[in-house]
Write a structure and sequence with these properties.
Blueprint: H1 7-12, H2 16-33, H3 36-42, H4 47-54, H5 58-66, H6 72-81, E1 87-90, E2 98-101
Antiparallel strand pairs: 1-2
Helix pairs in contact: 4-5
């Protein structure tokens, strides 16, 4: 009978530096999945509804959702139109985290 191992068991057998690279890339992929579309859908809004709140046409929202990189100012405008605010936490090794509430340029 073949003995199967779990992904965690396989990862634990890799060298420590390789495990760290895999962990960093996994974190990056998770961040990439958090998109404007994801935010809009989580709030139960259609593109048309979001467009109305942003005072733009629906195709503009579609275009924003297809962009790979969203500028912070654009994200702030969307979040503000939804009635929310943005908080950014800056984490630097050996320093206390710094919270930038309702980030403004």
């Amino acid at each position: 009978m073949t003995k199967y191992t779990t992904l965690s068991e396989e990862l634990n057998q890799l060298p420590r530096d390789r495990q760290e690279l895999i962990s960093a890339r996994a974190s990056q992929i998770r961040l990439e999945e958090i998109t404007l579309r994801h935010l809009r859908e989580k709030l139960g809004l259609s593109q048309s509804e979001l467009a109305e709140r942003l005072e733009v046409q629906q195709p503009a929202v579609s275009k924003l959702e297809r962009r790979q990189n969203l500028e912070l100012n654009t994200l702030r405008a969307v979040v503000n139109a939804l009635g929310g605010t943005i908080e950014i936490i800056v984490r630097i090794p050996n320093k206390e985290p710094i919270l930038l509430s309702d980030y403004q340029e």
